Amino acid sequence: THDRLIAIWHRRAGKDDVLLDAMRTLALKDPGTYWHCFPEQKQARKAIWNGVNGNTGKRRIFEAFPQAIIKRMQDDDMFIELKNGATFQLIGSDRYDSTVGSGPKGIGYSEWALSNPAAWAYHQPMIRETKGTILGAALTERRRIIPRSVYRRI
Fold this sequence. Notes:
Layout: E1 3-9, H1 15-29, E2 33-38, H2 41-49, H3 60-64, E3 70-74, E4 79-82, E5 87-92, E6 106-109, H4 117-130, E7 133-139, H5 148-153
Parallel strand pairs: 1-7, 2-5, 2-6, 6-7
Antiparallel strand pairs: 3-4, 4-5
């Protein structure tokens, strides 16, 4: 089995911050591969990789992963290797097939209700194999809430 967390919160409640904090904590505790998956890869770049927190003026990726714990970064792939050997990457469910051959220990889905359902079908065996963690976040708006069928699949 694997650990699961689903957060269904209102807009601007900090869903991505919680997912990022959880991925960092897991990566530091149990080194492996960790992903933060947006519906589209370009959304991940805008919101997290290049995004700046309006309250602090800091890039959101560095709030989640301080430079003191980073060994190296690859901008093109939105990839971070931590000093303990763990890796973190921002991905998109629109390009889920590019994750072939990976064995993530954790995946956080942002705006899960809008993600390509095929991505979860593709990632689920990987998480089962590593006995990893799945985190999902979605809005409370009725039209965008995670369908009951998704709950059954996880």
